[in-house]
């Protein structure tokens, strides 16, 4: 593998309830990377979550097993920590997976991140993913979230959906294939 990225699709959330990629996820690439840029929630303390589909986006709800670590630092230097977030783990559930937690909705805030999805077209293995996000959190503080897990399913994944836990959101999400 050379690690070269090929831009496959761009979705813009503009006061949107969700963003979906329902084509282009197939056996062409063994790895897909989603870059989330200038993500901003309309609703104070909303989260950004994701889930995948095996039927082109008609339904979302594949079993997920995951774990989350978070490092944070408060803007006023009032606190900092690295913690394991047991409350956000998924234990073989069909819930949407947390990506960005407790977003600030102030006009000057935005969050960024990347999500890597491996071998989504495989029909003989689970599909692993990991994500790193930098989130401007209500408080205010910066969170760096480390999320890893897998989709516990042997069907090919062919669509992905990003959505806020409440309200609408803004920003750009870019889907790349990795050669």
Question: How would you describe this structure in keywords?
Answer:
179 residues, Jelly Rolls, 13 strands, globular
Tell me the number of structural domains.
1
Provide the CATH topology.
Jelly Rolls
Oligomer: single chain
Tally of DSSP β-strands: 13
CATH second-level architecture: Sandwich
Strand content: over 45%
Straight-line distance between termini = 6 Å
- Average of the residue pLDDT scores: 96
CATH class: Mainly Beta
Low-confidence stretches: none
Alpha plus pi helix count: 0
- Shape estimate: globular
Class by alpha and beta content? mainly beta
Residue share in helices? under 10%
Question: Would you write up a description of this structure?
Answer:
- By secondary structure, the chain is mostly beta strands.
- The protein has a single domain (5-178), classed as Sandwich (Jelly Rolls).
- 0% of the residues lie in helices and 56% in strands.
- It is built from no helices and 13 strands.
- The chain has strands spanning 5-16, 19-21, 31-41, 48-53, 64-74, 80-84, 91-93, 97-100, 111-118, 127-137, 141-151, 159-164, 169-178.
- Strands 1, 3, 5, 6, 7, 9, 10, 11 and 13 form a 9-stranded antiparallel sheet that branches.
- The model has no long low-confidence stretch (mean pLDDT 96).
């Amino acid at each position: 593998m050379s690690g070269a990225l090929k831009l496959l699709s761009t979705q813009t959330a503009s006061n949107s309830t969700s963003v979906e990629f329902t084509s282009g996820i197939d056996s062409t690439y063994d790895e897909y990377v989603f870059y989330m840029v200038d993500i901003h929630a309309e609703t104070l303390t909303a989260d950004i979550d994701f889930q995948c589909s095996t039927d082109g986006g008609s339904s979302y709800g594949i079993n997920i097993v995951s774990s989350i670590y978070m490092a944070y630092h408060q803007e006023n230097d009032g606190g900092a920590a690295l913690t394991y977030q047991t409350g956000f783990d998924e234990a073989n559930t069909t819930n949407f997976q947390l990506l960005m937690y407790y977003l600030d909705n102030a006009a000057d805030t935005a969050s960024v991140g990347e999500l890597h999805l491996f071998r989504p077209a495989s029909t003989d293995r689970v599909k692993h993913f990991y994500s790193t996000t930098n989130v401007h959190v209500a408080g205010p503080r910066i969170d760096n979230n480390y999320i890893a897990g897998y989709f516990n399913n042997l069907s090919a994944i062919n669509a992905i959906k990003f959505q806020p836990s409440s309200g609408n959101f803004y920003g750009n999400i870019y889907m790349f294939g990795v050669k």
